[in-house]
Amino acid sequence: MKACVLYSGGKDSSLVAFILKNLGYEVELVTLNFGYYPSWKAAAESSAILGFKHRILKAKPHVLEDAVDTIINDGFPNNGINHLHKYALELAANNYKLIADGTRRDDRVPKLDFNEIQSFEDRNGVEYINLGGFGHKSINHLSKTLFNVKKELTNRENNSDYEIEIRFLISKLEGEEMAFKLFPEHLQSRVIGWRENE
Amino acid sequence: MKACVLYSGGKDSSLVAFILKNLGYEVELVTLNFGYYPSWKAAAESSAILGFKHRILKAKPHVLEDAVDTIINDGFPNNGINHLHKYALELAANNYKLIADGTRRDDRVPKLDFNEIQSFEDRNGVEYINLGGFGHKSINHLSKTLFNVKKELTNRENNSDYEIEIRFLISKLEGEEMAFKLFPEHLQSRVIGWRENE
Questions:
Q1: Does B22 contact chain A (CB < 8 Å)?
Q2: Chain B interface, best mutation among A106, A137, A147, A198, by max B CB count within 10 A
Q3: Mind listing the pLDDT tens digit for each residue in B128-176?
Q4: ipTM for the complex shown
Q5: Is B2-194 a domain of CATH 1.10.3720.10?
Q6: Is B21 on the interface with A (CB under 8 A)?
Q7: Closest alpha carbon within chain B to A147
Q8: Which residues pair with B193 in a beta bridge?
Q9: Mean pLDDT estimate for chain B
Q10: B93 interaction partners in chain A (CB closer than 8 Å)
Q11: HSE-CB of B55 using CA atoms within 13 angstroms
């Protein structure tokens, strides 16, 4: 059975991909893109190194525009990011019967609550799997065991989170300063290989 | 790193054991027992067939007695079973740094909520993992792919759930009729091997 993982190149989505592969699924990694900026490249690179098939999930630009409106109006990114994540899941459900993401037990955004998950599965006739059984301590430990991880400041080239295209559009509409205010610089972990030639 | 799975011989706890093994943990399966009835035998058998080390987690009889009091007073088993499960986790935390169980996303009993999990991890300096990322549809599908499963009516010999010793003690104290009222007969799935000589 095919399984689709919403993939950013980070340790969480890499871990859920690894777990699903070991459970016997034919795993494909997909990254949402709105055509504003090719932010999927880092994810595609991590995916290739790990040996997974990677696809771009082509999204409608107006969905990003709406999310950016929300974020600017809210003054914080949470609702906009959640909106994009739910949209990505629905889009993936057009082509896959099992959709997974790297959401952990202690994640807050993006995250679906229990009822949203039930509704997503039932409306689309799909299965949804995430890392809801794992906390950050276990995931940090596993990621060290399994992956070569590079920690660096997020920039447009090394990251495939929703953040990149959101920032790109905010910069264009409102200027760099607003983009930095809403998304301060931060360290990110990117998976750049298996730990032991696994 | 060692990982302890609270194990009943059912498909959920077998699945979490399989996932953790594939993640590189040295998995040991443990089954709580209060010394009232050797209900751990079915779990030990499944464990042996799957090739895992199995241990009995020896528990204090008064904890079972308290749970049975609760169940008889409540008129339903949920609170008593949750109490035993939390006790089993605390007991396991004396000997292991990672404790897991087969609780699914859509399970209701036994189940720890988010704050109980955080508290359990922090108080004991341990990690806790469950199947909170998986719903029953995915688990049923995976269990068919991975395991030989036997469906049969629960009895004292084919089951290692908390239910068995609880029923045993209720029968002794209040008679068989009360035990059947609180725990009606039901079908259970027991793992009796790998699907494809895995």
A1: yes
A2: A137
A3: 999 999 999 999 999 999 999 999 998 888 889 999 999 999 999 999 9
A4: 0.95
A5: no
A6: no
A7: B23
A8: B148
A9: 96
A10: none
A11: 16
Q: Which chain B residues touch A117 with a CB distance below 8 Å? A: 105, 135
At position B154, the amino acid (one-letter code) is T
Residue linked to tokens 């990254």: A31
Which string of DSSP letters, residue by residue, matches B75-141? Answer: TSSHHHHHHHHHHHHHHHTTT-SEEEEEEETT--SS---HHHHHHHHHHHT-EEEEETT--HHHHHH
Q: Check whether B197 has a pLDDT greater than 70.
A: no
Q: Give the residue on B whose Cα is nearest the Cα of A137.
A: B127
pLDDT by residue (tens digit) across A25-81?
Answer: 999 999 999 999 999 999 999 999 999 999 999 999 999 999 999 999 999 999 999
Question: Does the beta-carbon distance from A117 to B105 stay under 8 Å?
Answer: yes
- For residue B91, give both structure tokens: 């007991």
Nearest to A133 among B118, B132, B145 (CB): B132
**This prediction's pTM:** 0.96
Using DSSP's 3-state secondary structure scheme, residue B155 falls into coil
- Cβ atoms of residues B179 and B171 within 8 Å: yes
Taking contacts as CB-CB distances below 8 angstroms, the residues of chain A near B98 are 138
Q: What are phi and psi of A55, to 5 degrees?
A: -130, 155
Task: Name the DSSP letter for residue B35.
Answer: S
